[in-house]
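Sequence only, no structure available. Ideas?
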Amino acid sequence: SRARAVAVLFINMVSMTRASNRATVQRIAVLLMLLNLVQQAAFSSIAATNPMPERLPLTCEEDVMRPKAHGTCERPVQKNLRWGVDQQVADRICCFNRHYAEYSGYFASVSTYLKEIGAEDSEITYYDSVTGKPLFVAPRGRSMAAYKKESLAHGWPSFRDEEVVWENVRCLPNGEAVSVDGTHLGHNLPDGRGNRYCINLVSAAGNPKSEAEDL
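Reply:
I predicted one. Tokens follow.
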């Protein structure tokens, strides 16, 4: 009968719709799996390039700060340090010092540095004043204004875990922050947000290694 034919046609249409829906769902599932694989591959690539250690800070033994040719360093600080910081102060703090620091607020008296950290949407790489190796990149995970505010509040440039170049920076058990080459940098003074590396500007005012070799 006509009614029976209509019923059969309706059932067939519903079955086709369900099959189509299943196919669509399957295609979406495949696409999501592919997207997940692409994201994992991208993350792995980034992590391999600059992996974040699981436990921070990375520590070292006292041997890193053993006496060398120039205090705890192999040579004096660079002659033309960035931002015009005091070379004699830098050399004393970097190579002949384990406990003391530039005076609180020193970095705020360096006008060229203040001008540089006054620019939003910028990122500064800080280099070892002796070796020219990168030590910190800031700001990371916050704004320049937040970095500046925290540093001014404490009196010294203050860096967080994600802003440290861990290939070149270590901490001793007593909290002293040093370079892997023996440069005294400052101290780790943790607060409620985690590790905070309170660093002398004169210790991180070097020129990049390739440029320093030409100076």
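The two ends are 99 Å apart (CA to CA).
Hope that gets you unstuck.
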